[in-house]
């Protein structure tokens, strides 16, 4: 999914509202989420927001696995993978809704610094430091920034964010914030520090998001980075090839 396609999806989601007319979608509970004021303007520290999460229990002796979804996604994207890895590894597994996504709080600030700050607030609260961060796309960039700081079908996907309220369908996504910060979401903040811990970058063989031309900068920031390609997978590696994805993760953890 490239920038033009993402902009088209944003236009589609804004235009797609429908009164309840027996459309075959199951009802979901929905509560109006608080809007957090922007606090990262003028160089001030981003203010963390309340994140919705699901934690699967496991052995506390091993670092937990923390899954971070991509743009337009939610913690439910990793349900199958999270449950399977929790059973197979015995580790605690956390899935999280990013700000402005799923059931997490909304905020006009959609910077990677803010998303990283959210996790810096949540993970210690849950006793999950240290942990293994596993991020897809936007979630991968968030994991990259958090690690650096600590060393200091598309429509079906979108419809998971559609809920019925008072006879009308509304979006749980904060579309205005996502559209306003789309250029930042598709980019990555310039950083000078490095992260010396082991890191796995997993890409789909059919995806154009992570390219060999990106490898030198990745290895500058993450000197111990491993690059691995999953054949016959697109951008959504964990969805296209879940068994290969989980095998790669387990091999990395071994």
Automatic annotation (TrEMBL):
Stretches that traverse the bilayer: none
Catalysed conversion reaction: 1-octadecanoyl-2-(4Z,7Z,10Z,13Z,16Z,19Z-docosahexaenoyl)-sn-glycerol + H2O = 2-(4Z,7Z,10Z,13Z,16Z,19Z-docosahexaenoyl)-glycerol + octadecanoate + H(+); a 1,2-diacyl-sn-glycerol + H2O = a 2-acylglycerol + a fatty acid + H(+); 1-octadecanoyl-2-(5Z,8Z,11Z,14Z-eicosatetraenoyl)-sn-glycerol + H2O = 2-(5Z,8Z,11Z,14Z-eicosatetraenoyl)-glycerol + octadecanoate + H(+); 1-octadecanoyl-2-(9Z-octadecenoyl)-sn-glycerol + H2O = 2-(9Z-octadecenoyl)-glycerol + octadecanoate + H(+)
Pfam families attached to this UniProt entry: Abhydrolase_1
GO annotations of cellular component type: mitochondrion
Domain AB hydrolase-1: 63-172
EC number annotated for this UniProt entry: 3.1.1.116
Keyword Hydrolase carried by entry: yes
Keyword Nucleus: no
UniProt GO molecular function: carboxylic ester hydrolase activity
Alphabetical keyword list: Hydrolase
Xref: InterPro entries: AB_hydrolase_1, AB_hydrolase_fold
Stated family: Belongs to the AB hydrolase superfamily.
Name of this protein: sn-1-specific diacylglycerol lipase ABHD11
Organism listed in the record: Bos indicus x Bos taurus (Hybrid cattle)
């Amino acid at each position: 999914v490239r920038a033009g396609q993402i902009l088209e999806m944003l236009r589609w989601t804004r235009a797609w509202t429908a009164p309840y007319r027996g459309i075959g979608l199951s009802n979901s509970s929905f509560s109006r989420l608080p809007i957090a004021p922007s606090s990262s303007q003028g160089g001030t520290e981003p203010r963390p927001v309340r994140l919705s999460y699901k934690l699967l229990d496991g052995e506390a002796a091993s670092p937990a696995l923390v899954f971070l979804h991509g743009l337009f996604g939610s913690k439910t994207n990793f349900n199958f993978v999270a449950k399977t890895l929790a059973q197979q590894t015995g580790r605690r597994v956390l899935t999280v809704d990013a700000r402005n996504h799923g059931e997490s709080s909304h905020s006009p600030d959609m910077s990677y610094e803010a998303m990283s700050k959210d996790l810096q607030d949540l993970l210690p609260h849950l006793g999950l430091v240290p942990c293994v961060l596993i991020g897809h796309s936007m979630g991968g960039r968030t994991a990259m920034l958090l690690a650096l700081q600590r060393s200091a079908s598309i429509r079906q996907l979108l419809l998971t964010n559609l809920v019925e309220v008072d006879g009308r369908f509304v979006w749980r996504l904060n579309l205005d914030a996502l559209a306003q910060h789309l250029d930042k979401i598709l980019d990555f903040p310039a950083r000078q520090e490095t992260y010396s811990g082991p890191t796995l970058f997993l890409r789909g063989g059919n995806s154009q998001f992570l390219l060999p031309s990106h490898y030198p900068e990745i290895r500058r920031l993450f000197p111990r980075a491993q690059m691995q390609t999953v054949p016959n997978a697109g951008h959504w590696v964990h969805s296209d090839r879940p068994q290969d994805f989980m095998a790669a993760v387990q091999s990395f953890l071994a």
